[in-house]
Amino acid sequence: MNPIQTQHALTLTHRLRRLRRSPGIRALVRETRLSPEQFLYPLFVCPGEGVRREVPSMPGVCQLSVDEAVRETVAARAEGVSGVLLFGLPARKDEIGSAAWDAGAPVQAAVRAIKRESPETIVVTDVCLCEYTSHGHCGVLVDGDVANDQTVELLVRAALSHADAGADIVAPSDMMDGRVGAIRSALDGRGFEQVAVMSYAAKYCSGFYGPFRDAADSAPKFGDRRTHQMDPANADEALREVEQDIAEGADIVMVKPAMPYLDVIQRVKETFGYPTAAYQVSGEYSMIKAACARGWLDEPRVMLESLTAIARAGADIIITYYAREAARAIAGARR
Ligand code: PBG
Predict the structure, then answer these.
(1) Is residue 203 flagged as an active site residue?
(2) Distance from the CA of 49 to the CA of which of 39, 228, 243, 334 falls in 20 to 30 A?
(3) Predicted confidence band of residue 153 (pLDDT cuts 50, 70, 90)
(4) How far, in Å, from the CA of 212 to the mean position of ligand 1?
(5) What does the H/E/C string look like for 243-286?
């Protein structure tokens, strides 16, 4: 029995609920589909052998020696993840971050080893100096501030050493002005015209990078990154950043972080129509992990909802620590 007797049948032209009736119909009209092909999986590569050291503020994420990074990559690849984004923990740091362009450092060694074991995996390298400088800033310090043009010279060296090792894509994350153009012309000058540049074009000065700085041991020893990373209040400026990086030769542009900046992802994609990446950063990941560990949120749902929202906003590529877990969840849902 109906609890309420309807007196007059409603005649509705549209009943939007018709297309929500069953899983099959919902799948048929779904606008945004997640696939592990969209994912890039960040890895932290450290010296040594057989090392898997979990990062306390990022459950499930480990610092990995080269051999372990290869294993992790092969496993991710088997689950359908397109590629990895490599960060390095060097054995030594100095004022100018010279380990960043050391051919024998963990990132360069990992690039070679991954390309040998799994040539079809897309290997992207993060190009920045903050993991390599003793002070934790993203470049050369002059009077306590990061000196733009001198830093660009060193970033070029790092990018060339990654290309030399066999990287498919280099990804400058430093936010110095002019680095994309300088890297592009240096790559071309050395015969690396097929190596692509994915620029961290709209990278905000965000509190959500906290756990990453534990993982990569890259927190600035003093001060912050406000003189080069973007003010969270600005979005028009993000379009100018992206426009410049495209003019300088960026092949892929990135917005970072992702979920707090969905409006920026959308505007970048709509304005330029370029391959657009979004980085679900450490703090976004750890926030979900922490709430789920307390039973406050349901992890599989929230993980996929967050990634779906990033894709819906316009991201073609999603960089996420959830790459493997999400790939497995997507495969499970299709079965
Ligand atoms: C800089 C870099 C950072 C991240 C990626 N590249 C940290 C920073 O700018 O301080 C953050 C990524 C994350 O939080 O997951 N090399």
Answers:
(1) yes
(2) 39
(3) very high
(4) 6
(5) HHHHHCCCCEEEEECCHHHHHHHHHHHHHHCCCEEEEECHHHHH
The structure tokens listed for 57 are 């503020």
Q: What is the pLDDT of residues 103-138, one digit of tens each?
A: 999 999 999 999 999 999 999 999 999 999 999 999
- Give the closest residue to 302 by CA, choosing from 259, 240, 242, 251: 259
Average pLDDT over residues 206-211: 96
CATH (one of 3.20.20.70, 3.40.50.300, 1.10.3720.10, 3.40.50.720) for 33-334: 3.20.20.70
Query: What is the pTM for the complete model shown?
Result: 0.96
Note if 269 is an active site residue: no
Question: Rounded to an integer, what is the distance from CA 256 to the centroid of its chain?
Answer: 8
Q: Say how many Å lie between the CA of residue 333 and the centre of ligand 1.
A: 31
User: Catalytic: which of 93, 115, 203, 221?
Assistant: 203
Strand pairing report for 141-142 and 196-203: unpaired
Q: Where are the domains of the chain?
A: 33-334
pLDDT, one tens digit per residue, over 277-286 is: 999 999 999 9
Q: Helix, strand or coil for residue 45?
A: strand
Query: What are the pocket residues of ligand 1 if the criterion is a CB atom closer than 6 Å to any ligand atom?
Result: 126, 128, 130, 173, 209, 212-213, 225, 281-282
DSSP 4: S
